[in-house]
Amino acid sequence: MIVFDLNCSQGHSFEGWFKDGAEFTSQRRRKLVVCPACGDTKVDRALSAPRVNRGTSRASASAVAGSSGKTPQKAVAGDGPTPEAIKAAMLQLRKYVETNADYVGERFPEEARKIHNGEADARGIYGEASEEDAEALREEGVEVQRVPWIRHDS
Ligand SMILES: [Zn+2]
Hints:
Elements (H helix, E strand, L loop, with lengths): L1 E7 L4 E6 L2 H9 L13 E3 L16 E5 L16 H18 L1 E4 L2 H9 L8 E4 L2 H9 L3 E5 L7
Parallel strand pairs: 4-6, 4-7, 5-6
Antiparallel strand pairs: 1-2, 1-3
Bound molecules: zinc ion (ZN).
C-alpha cells in the first residue's frame, strides 16, 4: 500500500491509501477519490509525501526513526498487497526518506530534541532509535515515525 497526501480543489488535505500509483490515477479518473471534508472529486496529490517530515511553520521537529536491518513483522492475508508490492512500497518509502531527510544515525534522539527545541534547523532527519527513545521523544511532543527499513539488496 502507498499513502498519498491528497488535496481537493477546496484546499482540504487528507490521506488516501492505494495499492500503487496506478490505482490512484485510475480511481481518480473514475472520480472514486473523494474529499472526506466536502465530497470534491477534483483531487490531486500534494507535493509532499506523508509519514515523513516536511517543513512546518511551527517550531516542531518531525523525525523518522529507522530500525536498520530489521524487516517488519506484519502478516497480510486475503486480498492484501503481495509481498512484492509491499517490498516495492517499502523501498519507495526508504528512497523518499533518504532523499528528503538528513541521516543522523545514532544521534537521532539528541538531534530530534534539538530540532524540537529550536536549537537546530527545522528539517527532516532519520536515524536509529530504540522503541524507548522513540517513546520518550513522543512524550516530549516530538513527532516520530518508526518506519520499516528494508535493505536495498534484500
Ligand atoms: Zn474538500
